[in-house]
Amino acid sequence: MHKNLPGLILAGGLSRRMGSNKALKQLGDSPLLSHVIERIRPQVSYLALNAPHDWADEFGLPVVPDTKLGHAGPLAGVLAGLRHMASVAPDASHMLTVPADSPFFPETLEAQLRSYMTDDSTVIIGASAGQVHPVFGLWPVAIADDLEQWLAVDENRRIRNFLGRHSTLGISFPKIESATSSIDPFFNINTPDELSIAQAFLDTLD
User: Fold this and answer.
1) pLDDT given at position 88
2) How far apart are the C-alpha atoms of 100 and 12, rounded to whole Å?
3) Would strands 94-99 and 7-10 be described as parallel, antiparallel, or unpaired?
4) Domain residues for 129?
5) What is the mean pLDDT of residues 19-41?
6) Per-residue pLDDT at 34 exceeds 70
7) What CA–CA distance (Å, rounded) separates 200 from 177?
8) Which helix (H) or strand (E) holds 138?
9) Overall number of domains in the chain
């Protein structure tokens, strides 16, 4: 049996479509990021936040900024996290990532993805409704050097292009159900309208 792996919340996006930092938008009684933290914290052995240097420490998590400048996207956050985990969790073969804008991902995400681990080099990612969601994944620490070399080329920012270089396994998850509604487990919030959809589903869970 493997013990729980360390985790990283990816919160380095620019929130252009929301107009302000979406991770801090109110959802129910707390910021969106608080919902993500509450959902992931029981699943991991250690938790950090990939965010810019100037983030306040109000969430009580270690802040791990991108090591590559220029908002290089989620892959830059993954790289920063892998380097960080190598020092704080040196025995971990993989790191779990989730984004800061998805509050309904499965409460068993880490355990289910981990159950498919057969080696220390395969990337294992979440999927739903025929779509893969690479920001929900177990990333092998062993690929950090290759990822750093990949990101040294400015055009190399797409996650799926990078995953094409490595063995990758997608694991499908069903919808999250309430008594009266359902939602994709990896529903993410980029706009005010999507925040309203999330609020409406959250209200059905009360």
Assistant:
1) 95
2) 9
3) parallel
4) 7-204
5) 90
6) yes
7) 13
8) strand 131-140
9) 1
The H or E element containing residue 112 is helix 109-114
End-to-end CA distance of the chain: 35
Residue 1 in any domain: the answer is: no
Output the pLDDT for position 183: 97
List all residues 6 or more positions away from 13 whose beta carbon is below 8 Å from its beta carbon.
22, 74, 99, 100, 101
pLDDT band at 53 (very low <50, low <70, confident <90, very high): confident
pTM of structure: 0.93
Residues 6+ apart with CB under 8 A from 50: 8, 9, 10, 11, 12, 63, 64, 65, 66, 77, 80, 81
Q: Has residue 37 got a pLDDT over 70?
A: yes
Residue 2 falls inside a structural domain: no
Q: How far apart are CA 46 and CA 75, in angstroms?
A: 20
pLDDT(167) > 90: yes
Would you call 193 exposed, middle or buried from its count of C-beta atoms within 10 A (0-12, 13-18, 19+)? exposed
- The answer to the question of residue 49 being in a domain is yes
Among 185, 41, 40, residue whose Cα is nearest residue 127? 185
Most confident of 69-78, 152-161, 174-183: 174-183
Six-digit token pair at 203? 């209200």
Residue 123 within a domain: yes
CATH number at residue 170: 3.90.550.10
In angstroms and rounded to an integer, the radius of gyration of the C-alpha atoms of the chain is 16
